[in-house]
Amino acid sequence: MIRSIDVKSTEAAKIYNYLSNTVTPRPIAFVSTINKNGNKNLSPFSFFNVFSVNPPILVFSPVRRVRNNTSKHTLDNIKEVKECVISLVSEEIAQQVSLSSCDFEANVNEFKKAGFTEVESDLITPSRVKESPVNFECKVNDVIELGAEGGAGSLVLCEVLKIHIDENILTKKQIDPFKLKIVSRLGANWYGKTTKESLYEITKPISKIGMGIDNLPEKIRTSKILTGNELAILASAKKVPSKKEFSLRNNKNTTEKHILAKDFLIQGKTEEAWQILL
Ligand SMILES: Cc1cc2nc3c(=O)[nH]c(=O)nc-3n(C[C@H](O)[C@H](O)[C@H](O)COP(=O)(O)O)c2cc1C
Questions:
Q1: Looking at residues 174-197, what average pLDDT do you find?
Q2: Is residue 21 domain-shared with residue 96, that is, in the same domain?
Q3: Which of 101, 110, 132 to mutate to test the pocket of ligand 1 (most atoms within 8 A of CB)?
Q4: Exposure string (b/e) for 165-202, b if CB count within 10 Å is 16 or more?
């Protein structure tokens, strides 16, 4: 059974729940801003991502509070001083980040409330966060308001001017996801960690164009045993590989072959899977 929700006749708080609990996991922007009186603010936003590389653009979205249709101080500050530092959130600081998200008064500095160390930025006025592994100094190019009601987001388009990376998260000069330990936002009170057990690689068929599932031999494509994921691994090959000598003496029936191939695919042995299937 599928539950289908008519958005127009459903209250915003419920839609917020459906969206924020399903569009997951989301990265978290920890945003440092300042207003024209010099009041500092630091708050997390998981409606966030990277949208351009040249120019380098990050976008996050403070949403108008559903309960009273007020705007977030972060947005108010950005309208006064069009700059921000976006810091990334690692496991080590996730609880402090959550604490900083309380509805403190506008003149409260969340650096102090949540125990973070302010570091002066090189190019902009808002401070960066010493404890974060990556800090982006940004100028705000545009704010796109998506509505005026409670729940309406405002897209804050941030151009990255300078990037600060803690060298402790590097392995052979590359960002190491297991050292970065980035935290993601899931639904309700759930957060995700970046652990070896939770990550796996999917080799991108970048140097060759995969043949596609529609070009797999029919017997494979219509398999009752191989899943869509497994067919996709096979279909990432440029063309159906040629049969090798040793696989000619294979007297298994189709079901047995598909079960064996599935086993090879689970082990990451694509070539062996193909040879069994041919
Ligand atoms: C991990 C996390 C992610 C959040 N993401 C968002 C978001 O994307 N948009 C939003 O409006 N509020 C988000 N919030 C809530 C704000 O951080 C919270 O409303 C905060 O008080 C805003 O602070 P400000 O009014 O000082 O800007 C998030 C809170 C947490 C803990």
A1: 96
A2: yes
A3: 101
A4: eeeebeeeeeeeeeebbbbbbbeeeebeebeeeeeeee
Q: Specify the pLDDT at position 252.
A: 83
Separation CA 277–CA 265 (nearest Å): 12
In a domain, 2, yes or no: no
The reply to whether 105 and 49 lie within a common domain is yes
pLDDT of residue 20: 97
State the total domains in the chain. Answer: 2
Domain-embedded: residue 206: no
pLDDT digits (tens, 9 = 90+) for 116-128: 999 999 999 999 9
Ligand 1 within 6 A of 74 CB?
yes
What predicted TM-score, i.e. pTM, was given to this entire model?
0.92
Radius of gyration for the chain, computed over Cα atoms and rounded to the nearest angstrom: 25
Q: Is the shortest distance between the CB of 164 and ligand 1 below 6 Å?
A: no
Q: Which domain holds residue 219?
A: 213-277
pLDDT of residue 243: 84
Q: For the domain that residue 99 is a member of, what is the CATH number?
A: 2.30.110.10
Question: Does 207 fall in a domain?
Answer: no
Residue 182 and residue 221 share a domain: no
CA of 170 to the centre of ligand 1 (A): 29
| Plot region of 158 (φ>0 → left; ψ -120 to 50 → alpha; else → beta) | beta
> 231 C-alpha to center of ligand 1: Å?
41
Q: What is the pLDDT of residues 49-102, one digit of tens each?
A: 999 999 999 999 999 999 999 999 999 999 999 999 999 999 999 999 999 999
